């Protein structure tokens, strides 16, 4: 999950970059070094995708670097040994931070990766836990899972989360501004789980069940203020059609192609997931509505010696029919790992339909893999309401630093800075690559 410090002009006056920002950055690195020092599951193997060539330079991660600081011998082994451990490989990461949507926060994220069998072509499975509490009394707990059974016969995808989340919404469409901001408060439960069976080489098909439950919804509005997009969307003839809670419950058809071996940090291959979801009143939904989500990614290894990668991401989220609840509409930063739209705070743009594309170039700074960097550019578009037409594209671009936390699972700690339109810019922190 990404955390942003969005720098509006008036915010910059209140929160200028200072020594405290540098201190937080240093603390993050120290935490990663200390917590990974005790991880006994590390091995000397650099896990690769099918398109990579074994590196002749021994690879390093935060644990190895700590050995060097302590002047202890670092176990060195050329990363051509494919008889790797099944794991689990742990990457715990406590973090302090600040974001416009949360204020100051403290959190703890953990990646657990493992294999279900020994093979050069085995796909890695992973669990990502993320928990945080913020200055604005927000609490969230997230579990993302991508589990393969032996021989990749089945693949289970999960996204479970709980939010207690006073926050801000900006209305519908791509033309909204900070002046359109409205304060809201709600609790949120999400349960997405899909079970897919392999039908051919790298192809999977299956079904899923999906619940989005928002409750204790409150819109905090100044008396006499103009009608907000929430009211325009949810009120009919002056009556609130949702009350203080909404429920979307439905089954989905899931089709997937995945030729990556390591979803934590792909070095090649492709991924595509098509999800068609049907929410129906019979399963408890407030209304009948349907959606389509297409998540497609492609990775090109540009240099076999360096391991540099050019990555492409397309993420389209469309409403096929019916009227989803306001908080279940396609939203920037509300994908499974909350990574779309670097440069924009989560929830900055929302609409009945969303189109999103991103390109990122990933390169090594050190040949031993400890440090790397990225440059990226993205673009998003949302339909306005009630016209339901696309009329503006919002770009974002930036660069980032990568620190190898665990070379066994190829898990990176990611620091990014991105710039968008309308005064949006900010830092993003992530565990694992953004896509």
Q: Which fold name fills CATH's third level, the topology?
A: Porin
The helix-strand sequence is HHHEEEEEEEEHEEEEEEEEEEE
Oligomer: single chain
Rg measurement, Å: 22 Å
Specify the CATH homologous superfamily: membrane protein fhac: a member of the omp85/tpsb transporter family
Question: pLDDT under 50 segments (min length 5)?
Answer: 4-48, 50-54, 77-83
Shape: globular
- How many E strands? 19
> What is the arithmetic mean of pLDDT?
84
Which structural class should the secondary elements be placed in? mainly beta
Task: Please tell me about this protein's structure.
The chain is mostly beta strands. The protein has one domain (9-431): membrane protein fhac: a member of the omp85/tpsb transporter family (Porin), CATH 2.40.160. Helix content is 9%, strand content 47%. The protein contains 4 helices and 19 strands. The strands form 2 sheets. The protein has a 17-stranded antiparallel beta sheet that branches. Helix 2 packs across helix 3 (62-69). It is globular and about 70 Å long. It starts with 8 loop residues before the first helix and ends with a strand. The relative contact order is 0.16. Residues 4-48, 50-54 and 77-83 have low confidence and may be disordered.
């Amino acid at each position: 999950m990404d955390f942003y410090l969005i720098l509006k002009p008036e915010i910059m006056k209140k929160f200028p970059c200072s020594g405290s920002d540098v201190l937080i950055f240093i603390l993050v690195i120290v935490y990663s070094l200390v917590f990974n020092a005790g991880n006994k599951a590390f091995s000397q193997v650099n896990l690769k995708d099918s398109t990579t060539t074994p590196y002749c330079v021994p690879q390093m991660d935060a644990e190895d670097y700590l050995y060097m600081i302590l002047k202890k011998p670092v176990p060195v082994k050329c990363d051509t040994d494919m008889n790797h451990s099944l794991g689990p490989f742990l990457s715990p990461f406590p973090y302090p931070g600040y974001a416009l949507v949360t204020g100051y926060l403290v959190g703890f994220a953990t990646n657990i990766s493992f294999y279900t069998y020994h093979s050069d072509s085995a796909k890695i499975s992973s669990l990502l836990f993320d928990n945080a509490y913020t200055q604005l009394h927000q609490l969230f707990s997230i579990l993302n899972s991508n589990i393969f059974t032996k021989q990749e016969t089945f693949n289970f995808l999960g996204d479970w989360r709980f939010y207690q989340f006073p926050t801000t919404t900006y209305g519908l469409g791509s033309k909204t501004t900070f002046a359109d901001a409205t304060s809201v408060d709600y609790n949120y439960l999400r349960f997405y789980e899909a079970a897919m069976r392999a039908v051919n080489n790298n192809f999977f098909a299956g079904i899923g069940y999906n619940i989005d439950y928002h409750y204790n919804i409150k819109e905090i509005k100044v008396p006499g203020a103009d009608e907000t997009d929430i009211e325009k969307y949810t009120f009919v003839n002056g009556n609130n059609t949702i009350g203080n809670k909404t429920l979307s419950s439905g089954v989905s058809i899931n089709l997937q192609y995945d030729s990556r071996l390591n979803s934590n940090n792909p070095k090649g291959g492709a991924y595509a997931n098509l999800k068609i979801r049907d929410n129906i009143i019979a399963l408890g939904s407030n209304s009948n509505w349907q959606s389509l989500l297409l998540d497609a990614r492609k990775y090109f290894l540009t240099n076999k010696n360096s391991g540099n990668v050019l990555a492409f991401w397309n993420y389209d989220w469309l409403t096929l029919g019916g009227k989803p609840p306001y908080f279940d509409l396609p939203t920037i930063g509300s994908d499974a790992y909350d990574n779309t739209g670097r440069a924009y705070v989560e929830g900055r743009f929302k609409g009945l339909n969303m189109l999103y594309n991103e390109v990122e170039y990933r390169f090594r700074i050190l040949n031993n893999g400890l440090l790397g960097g990225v440059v990226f550019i993205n673009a998003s578009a949302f339909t306005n309401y009630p016209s339901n037409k696309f009329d503006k594209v919002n770009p974002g671009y930036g660069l980032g630093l990568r620190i190898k936390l665990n070379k066994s699972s190829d898990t990176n700690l990611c620091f990014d800075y991105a710039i968008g339109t309308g005064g949006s810019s900010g830092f993003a922190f992530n565990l694992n690559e953004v896509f």
